[in-house]
Amino acid sequence: MPRLFESFGRRALFALDAEQAHALSITGLKTGLVSGSFPEDPALRQKIAGVCFPNPLGMAAGYDKNAEVPDNLLKLGFGFTEVGTLTPRPQSGNPKPRIFRLVEDEGVINRLGFNNEGHDAAYKRLAERGSTGIIGVNIGANKDAEDRIADYVAGIKRFHAVARYFTVNISSPNTPGLRNLQSRESLRELLQRVLEARDDECQKCTLKRPVFLKIAPDLSETELDDIAQEALDQKLDGLIISNTTLSRTGLKSKENTAETGGLSGAPVFERSTIVLAKMRQRVGKEMPLIGVGGVDNTTKTLTKIKAGADLVQLYTGMVYKGPGLPAEIIKGLSQVVEAEGVANISAFRDRETDEWAAKEIPA
After folding, report:
1. Could you read off the pLDDT of 87-128 as tens digits, one per residue?
2. Which residue, 33, 40, 84, 147, has most beta carbons within 10 Å?
3. Are 69 and 26 a contacting pair, CB within 8 Å?
4. Which amino acids are annotated as binding site, given as ranges?
5. Strands 51-53 and 46-48
6. Is 57 helix (H, G, I), strand (E, B) or coil?
7. Alpha-carbon distance 332 to 145, whole Å?
8. Which residues are annotated as a binding site for FMN?
């Protein structure tokens, strides 16, 4: 299916504005025309942060912002999917156009600005689900919030009953000042309040929901040190590495490279994998890490795992390779496990952490 999509489907979607194409793909998933049936491979199962994942590949936040098609995405072969980013109140985001393809680089620049329908609309959809598949909820803050940390706390409280895990997104470059929450003092307060809210909710229903923190790939070594130490000190459940980048280093595309916003896709692969490995060295072997950025085939998925990831997410790769991509990657991972004669995909973790961590983060 990926090759068929690249030949025909992509041409049709790329004739549309990027945001129109995204909306059309959501509609297509709702129809159920794009789906599949995939036997689970026990060798790909993992228990991470107390959650049993059928395979290590997930759909990253940003695609299904309003929790419209989580179960449809799982039917493509993903082991889990993440909805959002969701803010307490609906917001329209930044002015259009705000998504730009960099075709030669197989990348995308977006400056959406947390456009979403708000907590209530997404909660209603998630509460009505009949499936038990793993859905994470990515939470954020409204642009005009007086207390942004309070917005994250509100997300924990609102979705605790329906989320299998939470992602605290403080690394989007498209909400002014949001990345300042990655500074050590602000991060300490954020994690303390969010984890306290999570623990309070746990006492009410005995269901403990892991909380992951999603960080930027544009951090210095010192900033990585601070985040790692706070994550360990606050007993955070895990980290997602990474969000989009502000860097434009090494791009080949002649169009759209000057657009403001976060860059995702193939150009982010090296940067995000280096940051992933550096963070694995800092937090040790026990803390779960999810690797994101530039994943569009089995080899890159496996590279993330070898660099230190327990789980891997993708999004932009689907823009260029189509809805058959997750099934192709999962099939490839199963073949690699069998060929290498290992019991589980986790046997590959950290094989190349030191090599990746020794690299300089690109400018």
Report:
1. 999 999 999 999 999 999 999 999 999 999 999 999 999 999
2. 84
3. yes
4. 61-65, 85, 110-114, 138, 169, 174, 214, 242-244, 265, 294, 315-316
5. antiparallel
6. strand
7. 44
8. 61-65, 85, 138, 169, 214, 242, 265, 294, 315-316
